[in-house]
Design brief:
Blueprint: H1 7-15, E1 16-24, E2 37-44, H2 52-67, H3 73-76, H4 83-89, H5 102-126
Antiparallel strand pairs: 1-2
Helix pairs in contact: 2-5, 4-5
């Protein structure tokens, strides 16, 4: 839950194992930047099952949640994730995006996709 934990961190760690190899001090550059750089290795994680619906919703939830960092999840995900979904996943809607793990975002995405598929099934059965 730090300011460096954001959308990029969540999306990268969803798909990759990240290892810091070494840090590069600012004086290694000319002119020296005001940040310290790092050399990292990103190894793709084995994806057990890729579901494009879940991955799409996951990306959208992360984008919305981090779009306005100071808003609670209840406000930033309003219209996408409802109170029942927060209760079902056990995730506190009063938290901010930086308080959620990659796994928490994935739980919400799976819940949203499951809810959407149930809704579509009901609509299809009512039209038969």
């Amino acid at each position: 839950g730090t300011s460096s934990y954001g959308r990029l961190t969540v999306c990268v760690t969803r798909a990759f194992e990240v290892e810091t190899i070494f840090h590069v001090e600012p004086d290694a550059f000319s002119p020296p930047p005001e940040v310290r750089s790092s050399v990292i290795v990103m190894r793709p994680k084995p994806l057990i099952a890729f579901d494009s619906d879940i991955e799409g919703i996951f990306s959208e939830l992360v984008r919305l949640a981090f779009g306005k960092r100071r808003k609670t999840l209840r406000n930033s995900l309003n219209g996408v994730i409802d109170v029942a979904m927060f209760q079902e996943t056990g995730i506190d809607a009063g938290l901010r995006a930086e308080n959620l793990s990659v796994e928490n975002f994935m739980e919400l995405a799976k819940c949203a996709v499951a809810r959407d598929s149930k809704r579509k099934t009901k609509v299809m059965t009512h039209h038969d």
